[in-house]
Design brief:
Elements lengths: L20 H13 L3 H18 L9 H12 L13 H7 L18 H13 L4 H21 L6 H11 L18 H13 L1
Helix pairs in contact: 1-2, 2-3, 3-4, 5-6, 6-7
Length: 200
């Protein structure tokens, strides 16, 4: 809805550093347009003083003055022509956007076990029988049971774990449920997670 005379933040230009607010951003933009270097310098000093008063707790930091001038440079898009009292080269690094990280998008047959469990299945398929493989089987089976318990809202089946372990390791790992003992699941671990998620 467009109402004449009303100016919404959603319709305004996005702030470069929102923590300083729109008025400080406008001051920076005004400073850039001043005709003489002396005027720009004086205006910049005034803006820094205002930014300093906005966050007095930051004065405890050893390099807080440097940060203020870095922030001023960033808000001006590095277009403010003044004699900078600090080297603002590192502000370019602060302003640079990080490269997006690749997100693993491998397709897995069942999501409740997660990608890491399927990496363990692949590892188990290549391992020779022995103590090291037995230890990894134990860790994998117990984690599978926890995953099932979490996704099944408190229900997990030993036979299901054994069946899936055999299936996803191409029959290389066969759990003998008459001798294999699963670790006891701590129900509190999952109830705490649920409680914490609800708080968020």
């Amino acid at each position: 809805m467009q109402i004449e005379g009303l100016d919404y933040n959603t319709q305004r230009e996005k702030l470069i550093l929102p923590e300083y607010g729109r008025e400080v951003q406008k001051m920076v933009e005004h400073a850039i347009t001043l005709p003489s270097k002396a005027e720009r310098q004086q205006c910049a000093q005034t803006i820094i003083a205002i930014m300093d008063r906005m966050y007095p707790a930051n004065r405890e930091s050893a390099d807080y003055k440097q940060k203020l001038w870095d922030h001023l440079a960033i808000m001006s898009h590095f277009e403010l022509d003044i004699d900078w009292p600090y080297d603002i080269k590192q502000a370019h690094a602060v302003d640079a956007k990080p490269q997006p990280m690749d997100y693993p998008m491998q397709r897995i047959p069942v999501r409740h076990y997660g990608n890491m469990i399927f990496e363990l299945f692949a590892k188990l398929k290549t391992m020779e029988p022995g103590k090291e493989r037995d230890n990894l089987v134990k860790l994998t089976a117990n984690q599978m049971k926890r995953c099932l318990y979490q996704w099944s809202h408190g229900s997990s089946d030993d036979e299901k774990v054994a069946s899936d372990l055999a299936k996803f390791t191409d029959g290389k790992i066969q759990l003998d449920l008459s001798t294999f003992k699963f670790e006891k699941i701590d129900v509190r671990e999952f109830t705490e997670k649920k409680r914490n998620n609800k708080k968020k």
